[in-house]
Specification:
The protein is α+β, with helices and mostly antiparallel strands and about 600 residues long. The protein contains 14 helices and 30 strands. The chain folds into 3 domains: about 90 residues, Ubiquitin-like (UB roll) (Roll), CATH 3.10.20; about 80 residues, Immunoglobulin-like (Sandwich), CATH 2.60.40.2700; about 325 residues, 4-Layer Sandwich (Deoxyribonuclease I, Chain A), CATH 3.60.10. The chain is elongated and about 95 Å long.
Length: about 600
């Protein structure tokens, strides 16, 4: 009999003796001649472990047991469960007037006897072909590669195999738009997992007249499936898939072994797409990921759902937009396709709902090699994504403008100027705007680091002086990061700055100073005037120039978005052309059925000097 060595740590070096299979074999293996599987999840930070397996009667057991409990108690409980399962199965057989028959070695009664006459099966746990003593604690007993025997049925114990903790398909799927499942794994990763996509062999019949189950109802006959030939994480349905449901078969892995597979069927049918979108022509310029010498950068206000779904938005701001095109599920399809089609290295987004970041953007962009960080404001926030093959994440230095202005000594001089104007000070400190700052390092050359800043300044048309002060705080903070914390690293500053090229904010950024008599200091009238002169030491340029507009709605159009770059270290290789005016106004204004936001993405290729 196998017993636990005196020191529990002695077990930590034990390696799995399970035969390794290739990825292809793991995806297609039928396991008809293989041992059954008993899955154990045991995490040091949790008091209980879980044990999952299927009994011979077909019932599935999922047990939660204390890690510090002796093994014998668990084995006894398994025996009791197995006996109950056998009794139920035997009773069912008898009720169908079938000959009683003990299955799986569970029953020891003679054929024809009552189910109650069955005795408990022999339940043992073996490790290295020796029975594990019943006084060994669960945490030590259930080792990877052990064998659980229930009667004459054997189960291979798999301790902490890769597993999906979350797996979802989008609720709205359109032909021509990538379908990116949301997934989370434990003891595994997406790169080491297997995916296979299926579609219905034929469309489901229409709903019958006079009631009855819907084609999407669980009571409707199960569909037959055909392989799509796609074994990647992302699947893009074609027009041939319209009217069909999709199914995804996933096998979690970690590059060394695989866990239990799962299947997921879409709850919706594939629908027709909107036809040509505003970004389709732009994608012709961004078909490939750029080489290491270039940095493709995107800045985009994607229109927060919290703003798009208001009655004011539907009836006043965007009355020209079809209501369904303002729905989040619809817009997410367009946003995902647009962003993934740019093949960007850096993506800075504004007006990002938290759930959009976690449920939509992260799954979609991760599948295309990008990783992201998020900074909440109030109802929405900022997101910065970077290509993992090009950059590694070093540090994050986000701030809230009003908190930094009040508490950070870095802004003491600016605050001393502002307190001379109490009305203006009060308005500035009420604003919730934030700045997201990420420091990245090149994966090819560790000496190359870059400071990526992202913001969304105060929106009100009369808030010019507030935006000036917010920008002064932003540039001082960015200087601290790029000069004090990481001396000499270049800066890319993206965002929706809510300022046209004629404003004081833009003048301040480009020229490095703003005089105290600039008209924007009185942008909200004389009562809130706050005259002061400001300077900064950066030499910045708008990488995409000054487009006629980056925001186009029914009552306004103008250039509000910029990608500012450090001219001392970076230069522009290429600016991806914006959509034509005809494309933007096809449906009157933005957003529309072919464009998911009221803003237009800025896209450019930058290179190190």
């Amino acid at each position: 009999m196998w017993r636990l060595p005196g020191a529990r740590a002695a077990l930590r070096g034990v390696r799995t003796a399970v035969e390794r299979h290739s990825r292809a074999e793991a995806a297609t293996e039928t396991r008809t001649d293989a041992m059954e599987r008993a899955v154990v999840r045991c995490v040091p930070s949790e008091p209980k472990l879980s044990l999952s397996f299927a009994l011979a009667d077909g019932s599935h057991k999922n047990m939660q047991r204390d890690q510090s409990e002796p093994l014998g108690r668990v084995l006894s409980r398994i025996a009791t469960n197995a006996l109950k399962g056998h009794a139920k199965a035997a009773a069912a057989k008898k009720s169908r007037k079938n000959r009683p028959n003990a299955s799986g070695g569970v029953a020891c009664a003679e054929p024809g006897s009552e189910p109650a006459a069955a005795c408990e099966p022999v339940v043992k746990l073996y490790y290295r072909e020796e029975a594990v003593a019943e006084d060994v604690l669960n945490v030590d007993a259930w080792q990877d590669g052990a064998v659980l025997q229930i009667g004459d049925v054997k189960y291979k114990v798999e301790r902490n195999p890769p597993a999906f903790t979350e797996l979802q398909l989008p609720r709205y799927i359109m032909a021509g738009f990538p379908v990116c499942p949301k997934l989370s794994l434990e003891f595994g990763d997406a790169a080491g997992s297997l995916f296979r996509w299926y579609k219905e062999a034929k469309p489901r019949a229409a709903e019958p007249e006079g009631g009855g189950p819907s084609p999407l109802s669980p009571s409707w006959p199960s569909p037959s499936w055909t392989e799509t030939g796609v074994d990647e994480r992302v699947y893009t349905p074609s027009n041939a898939d319209i009217g069909l449901r999709l199914k995804l078969q996933c096998t979690p892995g970690n590059g060394q072994r695989f866990g239990p597979s799962r299947e997921l069927e879409s709850v919706c049918l594939v629908e027709a797409g909107p036809g040509t979108c505003t970004f389709d022509h732009r994608h012709l310029y961004t078909k490939k990921v750029m080489g290491d010498a270039l940095i493709r950068t995107v800045s985009y206000n994607i229109l927060a759902d919290t703003y798009a779904q208001t009655e004011f938005s539907r009836t006043v701001l965007y009355p020209y937009c079809a209501p369904y095109a303002l729905e989040l599920d619809y817009r997410q399809n367009l946003i995902q396709k647009e962003l993934t089609g740019y093949n960007a290295d850096l993506i800075c987004l504004q007006e990002v709902d938290r759930n959009v970041f976690t449920d939509s953007l992260v799954p979609a962009l991760e599948a295309f090699g990008l990783e992201g960080v998020f900074r909440i404001k109030q109802h929405e926030g900022l997101a910065t994504f970077y290509r993992k093959s090009k950059f590694s994440f070093l540090s994050q230095h986000d701030i809230s403008f009003h908190e930094a202005l009040e508490s950070d000594p870095l802004h003491k001089e600016l605050l001393e100027k502002l307190v001379l104007y109490p009305s203006a000070q009060e308005r500035v400190l009420q604003r919730s705007s934030v700045l997201q700052v990420s420091v990245l390092q090149s994966t090819q050359d560790s000496s190359k680091k870059i400071c990526v800043a992202n913001t969304h300044l105060y929106w009100h048309p009369k808030g010019g002086y507030i935006r000036l002060i917010q920008m002064a705080v932003a540039l001082a903070h960015i200087r601290h990061v790029s000069c004090d914390l990481y001396p000499g690293i270049p800066v890319i500053f993206c965002g929706d700055f809510n300022s046209t090229p004629s404003t004081g904010m833009y003048h301040f950024v480009i020229n490095g100073n703003i005089p105290e008599d600039h008209e924007d200091w009185a942008s909200n009238g004389e009562e809130e005037r706050c005259n002061m002169s400001l300077t900064h030491f950066f030499k910045l340029k708008s990488a995409c120039g000054e487009p006629a507009y980056t925001n186009y709605v029914g009552g306004f159009h103008g250039c509000l978005d910029y990608i500012f770059i450090d001219l001392n270290a970076l230069e522009v290789e290429q600016v991806i052309p914006l959509p034509t005016h005809e494309e933007v106004t096809t449906h009157q204004a933005l957003p529309s059925v072919s464009h998911p936001s009221d803003h237009i993405a800025l896209v450019c290729d930058l290179k190190w000097k």
